[in-house]
Amino acid sequence: MSAVTNATATSTATIALLHLAPRPGEIAANRQAIEQAVRQAAANGARLIVTPELAVSGYGFRDLLGTGWIAEGQDELFAWAGALARETGATLVLGTPEATPDALFNSMVVFAPDGAVTGRHRKINALRVGSESWSTPGDRPTVIPIDGIGRVGFFVCADMYSKRLIDETAALGVDLHLSSAAWAPGLHGPNGEWERASSSTGRPVLVCNRTGHDVLDFNAACSLAAVDGTVAFSHASAEPRIAWVDWTPDSRRLADWRVR
């Protein structure tokens, strides 16, 4: 049976995928865009709000800003994101560079509706050259329970290349897979990874991709839902948009998809 249904017998939770256009190195502008989109998503009932990979910094920030700002501004950044989650009453998944005392990571950081950080996923298949050479690969699969959604398996972009990581994540018990991405079509672009993950695990895959120009042209990059090995819904646009997905956690079904 397909994991996409129009049934209304069970309650649904709305998930918002923010298909944004982060500008490389323009932290203030990117934060403003995130803030506006998060408020709009929450006003339309989203309980889980997701940003693309490196939404705070843009993908190619390193050559413009370096990396010192990551640790220096992290406390203030996390306080801002936590306050935004509290204000909107939603769970916020923020794509951002993250610093520890010993390393830098390309992370998805999860802020609960009370503003607390409840977990993070650090990109495992991080490139060791070019625009991602600043980041240290993560070392473990990530599953985080999210109130009203279920147990969510997290991935950042090329993490979905790894069948082993997908299998290890699924083995932890997953209701839904979620990936942030900065993944443009073309050479080395997506080639069925999301669809295969949905087929092999029997769980839907939601992808929050991006648009705009950075180190690549992302205007044709797709945010999507993959279900049972096929793309059930997708969106690409040159302008930022929000995709809302209605999710029925009890039956692990995607009930509806709309873009504004």
Task: Describe the overall structure.
- It is built from 6 helices and 13 strands.
- It has helices spanning 27-43, 62-65, 68-72, 74-88, 163-171, 193-201; strands at residues 13-19, 46-50, 91-99, 104-111, 117-122, 142-146, 150-156, 176-180, 205-208, 223-227, 230-235, 241-248, 253-259.
- A 7-stranded mixed sheet has the order 5-4-3-2-1-12-13. Strands 6-7-8-9-10-11 form a 6-stranded mixed sheet, covered by helices on one side.
- Mean pLDDT is 95; it is low at 5-9.
Concise overview:
The chain is of the alpha/beta class and 260 residues long. The protein has helices spanning 27-43, 62-65, 68-72, 74-88, 163-171, 193-201; strands at residues 13-19, 46-50, 91-99, 104-111, 117-122, 142-146, 150-156, 176-180, 205-208, 223-227, 230-235, 241-248, 253-259.
Features:
260 residues, 32% strand, Nitrilase/N-carbamoyl-D-aminoacid amidohydrolase, C-N_Hydrolase, alpha/beta, single chain, 6-stranded mixed β-sheet, 7-stranded mixed β-sheet
Radius of gyration: 17 Å
What is the global morphology? globular
Tell me the strand percentage band: 25-35%
- Superfamily at the CATH H level? Carbon-nitrogen hydrolase
Structural class: alpha/beta
Topology record:
Blueprint: E1 13-19, H1 27-43, E2 46-50, H2 62-65, H3 68-72, H4 74-88, E3 91-99, E4 104-111, E5 117-122, E6 142-146, E7 150-156, H5 163-171, E8 176-180, H6 193-201, E9 205-208, E10 223-227, E11 230-235, E12 241-248, E13 253-259
Parallel strand pairs: 1-2, 2-3, 7-8, 8-9
Antiparallel strand pairs: 1-12, 3-4, 4-5, 6-7, 9-10, 10-11, 12-13
GO molecular function: hydrolase activity
Keywords: Hydrolase
Organism: Reyranella humidisoli
